[in-house]
Structures are given as C-alpha cells and as structure tokens.
C-alpha cells in the first residue's frame, strides 16, 4: 500500500482489524488514507486502529479499568470502551449546562454523558486508571491546564492515551487561536474547524509538532511517550497516525 503522498493503486487489502478484532478487508476509497482507508466491518480509520492497537498492547486489561473518555466521536474504540469497560465515563463540554451534571443520551452507546471542561474538571483526584482523548488537544485554549487536570484525576500508575494530528512535525508547535478576556482572537487566518459530535464544528486552536510530548510532560508531571505504528496487515498506515501515552509513575531510580 503506498503512503499518503503517492496515488493509491490498491483499493482492497485483506488483514486483521485491531478495532473490531476481526479478519476483514480494508478498503481505500481515495489516495489520502487517513480519511479513506476503512475497515469493511467496523468502518474504522487508521488512527482508530492505531489507538486501539496501542491500548490493547500497553493495557490488555482495559476492560477492567476505570476509564474516562473526553469528547468521544463514537468510532469503534469509543463504542467498545462504552460497551465492554467495567467502569466507563464519557464527557463533553457544554458551557450552557452545569459542570458535573449528567445528561441522558439513549442514542449514544454510553446511555448518558457528563458535562466537563477538560481545563477544569469536577472529578475527584485519582479517580481513573485511564483517560482517553481522541483528537481533542488541538481544540483546547489552555492545554497546560487541561493536561494538569487529566494528571490530577489519574490514579498512581494510570495513564492518558491520546491522538493529536501532529501537523507541524519537526517544526515548533504554534497557536492558531487564543481566548483573551473571554473573546476568541484568531492568530492564523482563515480559522480552521474540525467536525464535532455535538456541534457544527470545533475550532482548531493549536497546531502541534513533535515537541508536544515535552510540553505535556512539563506541564503535567506525566512521562509522555510518542508511539508510531505502521503495520499494513493491521490496516495501520496513514499520515498523522501518532499516539501519545502519558504515564503517572515516578522516574525510575537507576
């Protein structure tokens, strides 16, 4: 299978999907594999499969863990977490509702979700074994506060697993939009929006480079590792497929 900057000549490929854990056919409907290389069974994309592969590899007992997922998009990973985890909480940010309140959502796999601001969570300290955030940290205004709050809510030995499109690669991360005295200031034009499950679009506030791991470690005290998976047999091949793991554990005394 060619990489993203090459035209794709192979439209179908048999393999094993880490998302649904089935033998499937992966189908590429266009040359940009990140948005087109889908599983024929669960319809996952490469970034979903990469996240699930990392989750299962590092935390094979994920079903027995206490998990918080911020702003799930209800891909195969979120659906399986909601249905198979012993204790799973989904949260969304909605400034029109009280923080910490529960919203019934029978149309969602979780049945309900909690109103939370990732930059100012209402969860108690050391609540979760795992926190997941799929393509969330490019939309927050204060990532330093968000990762500090995530770290606070993790149990010792817990971890945050996240995907973020690292579009700047080796270049320094940059801010696209800032929130100053309650007003949004666009620093890069035109403004960029991504799809959001509860709204018409989520503003892209940050464009991250590989320096994200150092930034998040510095502001949280977590030990961050950047994992890159390229395995065509698992349907994991595409641009911007990075997975970050931040572990709440002491630095080893060697």
UniProtKB/TrEMBL annotation:
Keywords: Methyltransferase, Transferase
Single GO MF descriptor: S-adenosylmethionine-dependent methyltransferase activity
InterPro entries for this protein: Methyltransf_11 (IPR013216), SAM-dependent_MTases_sf (IPR029063)
Domain Methyltransferase type: 111-161
GO biological process: methylation
Pfam family, one: Methyltransf_11
Entry protein name: Methyltransferase
Organism for this UniProt entry: Chelatococcus reniformis
């Amino acid at each position: 299978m060619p990489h993203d900057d090459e035209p794709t000549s192979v439209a179908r490929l048999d393999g094993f999907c880490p998302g649904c854990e089935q033998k499937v056919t992966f189908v590429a409907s266009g040359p940009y594999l990140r948005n087109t290389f889908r599983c024929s069974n669960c319809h996952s994309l490469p970034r979903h499969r990469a996240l699930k592969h990392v989750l299962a590899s590092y935390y094979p007992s994920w079903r027995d863990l206490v998990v918080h997922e911020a702003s799930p998009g209800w891909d195969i990973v979120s659906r399986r977490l909601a249905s198979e985890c012993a204790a799973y909480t989904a949260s969304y940010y909605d400034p029109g509702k009280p923080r910490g309140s529960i919203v019934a959502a029978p149309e969602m796999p979780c049945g309900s979700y909690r109103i939370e601001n990732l930059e100012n969570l209402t969860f108690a300290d050391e609540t979760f074994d795992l926190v997941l955030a799929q393509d969330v940290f490019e939309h927050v205004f204060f990532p330093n506060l968000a990762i500090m709050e995530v770290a606070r809510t993790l149990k010792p030995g817990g971890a945050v697993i996240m995907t973020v499109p690292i579009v700047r690669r080796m270049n320094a991360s940059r801010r696209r939009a800032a929130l100053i005295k309650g007003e949004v200031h666009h620093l890069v034009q035109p403004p960029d929006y991504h799809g959001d499950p509860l709204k018409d679009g989520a503003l892209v506030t940050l464009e991250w480079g590989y320096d994200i791991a150092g930034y998040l470690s510095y502001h949280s005290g977590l030990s961050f590792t950047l994992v890159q998976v390229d395995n065509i047999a698992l349907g994991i091949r595409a641009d911007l497929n990075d997975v970050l793991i931040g572990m709440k554990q002491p630095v080893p005394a060697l």
